[in-house]
Structures are given as structure tokens and as C-alpha cells.
Design brief:
By secondary structure, this protein is mostly helical. It has a domain of 229 residues. Helix content is 77%, strand content 0%. α4 packs antiparallel against α5 and α4 crosses α11. It is globular and about 60 Å long. The N and C termini lie far apart (67 Å).
Length: 373
């Protein structure tokens, strides 16, 4: 009972710090609005609308943000970074759309949906395999490769949606595939909104990822590799294999996000529809300290911020870019904390190295004294 209370107290303390960060960022934005002639209260009005009358669209954004946060958290737990979520998402989305358009009428709608989402996840997995293989084989920086692969993925989807998969009536500025049949749309959980069962899928996957990371051998290996890869190697853990596994799981989740966006929100593949969900997923994961259950809360928070910004822009003259500034402040706070942690770790490591060097010099000196004639 005492251990549970201490754990609960720790969780509440961490949550309180995160909420404080958000409120500080909102206060700064309200101050900026006041100095530039806008009404500061408009920020809170937009956020209020996002959790009351427009809760459906908040949940619409919450689902992909949770999933993208999970896709980032898994490899980050192993000490590697998958910055290619956007590219994996785009390829998964267009794959799901192509399967949905080609198989409709040939199979039951439910089977088409399951197959399309599964294939989208597989394509995301295969796309993530490229940087994972390069990192494991030649030590290539995965941040560089995943970022570059994002651009390649966008160009591939541009070619497909403006070529073989171009829909009727599409033009060079509004290019997209044909719309999916209504039988293939994911079930909405709130009428008159885009909130769909993708939210339940996100919650289930978060629970599964939490179980894998904290209750399985694979999760233990992932955390050991992320903490100390040298110790992991001496402990018999295959670091390269573990890193590849985290990338594959991450890519599969990212590809699934694309399929859910197509079948649950857009009902077609609109060219370059992705609005930076992958990079928002990085922030969602960092705010939750890569904890899958924490990502459920931070994903919801950023869903409120995103939809609140849209509402603020819709009902006032304030640009939604102000909400981007809020997110930027949160990112700076989170990354600043990580940066200080890295510097402390580096300082401890240097101190340890200095101590080891001094001990070695002292031992050498004593040895020299012993062998003197």
C-alpha cells in the first residue's frame, strides 16, 4: 500500500509539472496577444470550446497524436530516434486508400477495412526498415536517414495521387484519389464530427505498448539498450536486433495512423494531407517521458491545443499560429530539460573517466616503484 501511494504521488508530481509547463506557455501567449492589441481571453475561449461544444473534433485530433507519440516513444526508449513518422504515415495512408478503392465490392466492407489498415501498417513497417537496417549495419545516423526518407515518401505519394490513383475531377492544386464508399468509413463515436473508433484503437495500442515495454522480455531489452548499449551487449542482448524491432513496431503504428486518417477522417487520400503529425508526436512523447500511458494524456492535451487553435482562428481574428507558438514553448521546455540531463550525464561520465585515469596513473606509479632495482 505504501509503495502504491509513493508511485501515485510520483505520477501526480510529474503530471503537475507538465500541466504547469502548459499554463506557463499559455500565459506567455496571452501576454503577447495583449501587447499586440488582441484580446488575451480569446485563447481560453478557444480552449474552452475545444473541450465543450467541439469535443468531437478534439477527439479527432487526439487519436493520431496518441498513435504518433507511441510511434516515437518505442524507438526512443531504445536510444534511437524515428523522425520519419510523417513519411511512413503518408505511405500507409495511400496504400490503405488504394486497397479500399480496388477491393470494394469484391469483399465484405469490414474485411476490406481490416485488410487496408493492415497493409498500411505493413508498408509503414517496411519503410521504417530502411533506416533501421542502415543504422544496425553501418551505424548510419537514423535521424538523417528518416528525415530524408520523409521527402522521398511525399514525392512517391505525389506521383501516385497525380498519376495512377488520381481521382475524377482532381486538378493540379486539389489532387486526391476518389472518395471511399460510405460502407468503408470508420464508425463515428460523436455525431457531426470526425471523431471515430480510431480513438479506441489508439487507447488499445497504448495499453499493449505499455505491457510490452514494462512486462515482457522485449521491453526489458529495449530499456537496457536505451540505457547502456555496452552493458546490454555484455549481458547477451543483441542491440542491433532490438533497434530494428523498435523501428519496425514504430513504422507499423505510423502506417496505421495513415490508414485511420483515410478511412476515418478524409475518406480519400488528399495530396500532402499530413499536417506535421509526426513531429507533433515527438512533442507528445517527450512530454510523457516516453511513457505509453502518459502519452494518452499528453496526446489529449495536444488535441485540445490543436482544436482550440482552430476554434480561436474561426471565431476571432487571432491567427492559429499563436497556438504553434504555445507548442514551440512547450518543446523548448521539454528539450531544455533533456539537454540539461544530457549535460549532467556527460559531466558524470567525464568525472568517472578522470577518476579512472587517476587511479590507473597511481597504479602505474606504484608498479614502477616496486620494479625499481
Amino acid at each position: 500500500m505504501k509503495a502504491f501511494q509513493e508511485n501515485l504521488k510520483k505520477i501526480l508530481l510529474v503530471a503537475g509539472k507538465k500541466i504547469l509547463i502548459v499554463f506557463i506557455a499559455l500565459a506567455v501567449i496571452m501576454l503577447v496577444l495583449a501587447l499586440t492589441g488582441y484580446k488575451p481571453i480569446s485563447v481560453m475561449e478557444g480552449m474552452k470550446r475545444a473541450v465543450t461544444s467541439d469535443i468531437g473534433n478534439t477527439l479527432r485530433w487526439t487519436a493520431p497524436l496518441i498513435l504518433c507519440g507511441l510511434a516515437v516513444a518505442i524507438p526512443m526508449s531504445a536510444g534511437v530516434f524515428n523522425m520519419g513518422i510523417d513519411g511512413q504515415l503518408m505511405l500507409g495512408a495511400i496504400t490503405s486508400a488504394a486497397i479500399g478503392l480496388s477491393l470494394y465490392g469484391k469483399m465484405p466492407p469490414v474485411s476490406v477495412i481490416i485488410l487496408a489498415l493492415s497493409c498500411g501498417a505493413i508498408i509503414g513497417l517496411l519503410w521504417a526498415l530502411i533506416p533501421a537496417f542502415l543504422r544496425a549495419t553501418w551505424g548510419t545516423d537514423e535521424v538523417v536517414t528518416t528525415l530524408l526518407l520523409n521527402y522521398i515518401a511525399v514525392l512517391i505519394t505525389d506521383y501516385l495521387v497525380m498519376g495512377p490513383l488520381m481521382g475524377e475531377g482532381a486538378t493540379g492544386t486539389t489532387y486526391s484519389t476518389n472518395s471511399l464508399a460510405t460502407d468503408l468509413w470508420l464508425t463515428r463515436i460523436i455525431p457531426q464530427s470526425s471523431a471515430n473508433i480510431g480513438l479506441f484503437i489508439a487507447i488499445v495500442i497504448a495499453i499493449i505498448v505499455n505491457f510490452v515495454l514494462y512486462s515482457t522480455t522485449l521491453g526489458y531489452e529495449i530499456k537496457v539498450v536505451g540505457t547502456n548499449s555496452i552493458f546490454a551487449r555484455y549481458g547477451g542482448i543483441k542491440s542491433k536486433k532490438t533497434i530494428i524491432m523498435t523501428f519496425l513496431i514504430s513504422g507499423a503504428i505510423a502506417g496505421l495512423v495513415g490508414g485511420i486518417e483515410v478511412f476515418g477522417v478524409h475518406h480519400r487520400f488528399p495530396g500532402r494531407f499530413n499536417t506535421g503529425l509526426g513531429f507533433d508526436g515527438v512533442v507528445v512523447s517527450l512530454m510523457a517521458d516516453n511513457n505509453p500511458l502518459g502519452i494518452l494524456f499528453t496526446g489529449t492535451l495536444f488535441g485540445i491545443l490543436r482544436n482550440g487553435g482552430m476554434n480561436m482562428e474561426r471565431v476571432t481574428e487571432i491567427p492559429r499560429a499563436m497556438v504553434d507558438v504555445v507548442q514551440a514553448l512547450i518543446v523548448l521546455t521539454a528539450t531544455g530539460r533533456l539537454g540539461f540531463g544530457f549535460l549532467k550525464h556527460r559531466k558524470r561520465r567525464n568525472s568517472s573517466d578522470d577518476s579512472s585515469t587517476k587511479n590507473e596513473e597511481r597504479n602505474n606509479s606504484l608498479l614502477a616503484e616496486e620494479v625499481k632495482p
